TrEMBL record:
It comes from the Bacteria. This is DUF47 domain-containing protein. SUPFAM superfamilies: PhoU-like. InterPro entries: PhoU-like_sf, Put_Phosphate_transp_reg, UPF0111_domain. It comes from Piscinibacterium candidicorallinum.
């Protein structure tokens, strides 16, 4: 079947990859924001926002292309769901960056940085998995990456639970506690959404409608 070689269908895969690349960029900028709070907070928050806005444009382009494509390489509902949930990852990254900036958070814990590192790892594996969707020959590699993302999300859960326990036990300033709690929760939600994307990808490669 030559469906994947049609010009419009090749463009779907390029758009998926561009979106995933922006996901990596946004999560890396978020990590840099957390590790350079005193010197680069505004710059890094702006960079995360820029990545999110660029991804929004790609999401709209993908949906418009879907409307014009009679035979897509994936089921239309799957394409819409995939790009929408990928967009959720960057939405949450932007929410996290804006929370840090608007709450004027001046310090974060090692746990917050560890969670951000896990977010980056999830985004990198999503980028790799999305890039492999172009061919059925990549099925096993895609599934391995999805398993890795699932493991990373579990790691994030463990990090957040331990961080929350320390926060409520050791933080005397109620305002700081509220701020850090919000950051922990948003970072963990990024990994949740990354796992959601991985689950969508996993479902795609396991069903017969995948025409890659």
């Amino acid at each position: 079947m030559l469906i994947r070689f049609l010009p419009g269908n090749q463009r779907f895969f390029r758009l998926f990859s561009q979106h995933a690349e922006l996901g990596v960029q946004g999560c890396r900028e978020l990590l840099l924001l957390l590790t350079h709070l005193s010197t680069e907070r505004e710059l890094r928050a702006q960079n995360v926002e820029a990545a999110e806005k660029a991804a929004d444009r790609i999401t709209r382009q993908t949906i418009e292309l879907l409307k014009r494509t009679p035979v897509a390489p994936l089921h239309p509902d799957a394409i819409h769901k995939l790009v929408s949930v990928m967009d959720d990852v960057l939405d949450l990254a932007e929410d996290t960056a804006q929370t840090i900036y608007l709450y004027d958070i001046k310090r974060v814990t090692p746990a917050a940085i560890q969670l951000a590192e896990i977010c980056v790892a999830c985004a990198e594996r999503l980028e790799e998995a999305v890039g492999l969707l172009v061919s059925r020959r990549n099925r096993d590699g895609i599934l391995r990456l999805c398993e890795q993302i699932d493991k990373l999300e579990s790691d994030a859960d463990h990090v957040m639970r331990a961080a929350m326990s320390r926060l409520f036990r050791d933080e005397p300033d109620t305002r700081e506690l509220i701020k850090l709690k919000a950051v922990y929760e948003l970072l963990e939600q990024i990994t949740d959404k990354a796992e959601d994307v991985a689950n969508i990808i996993e479902g795609l490669v396991l069903e017969r409608s995948w025409r890659g």
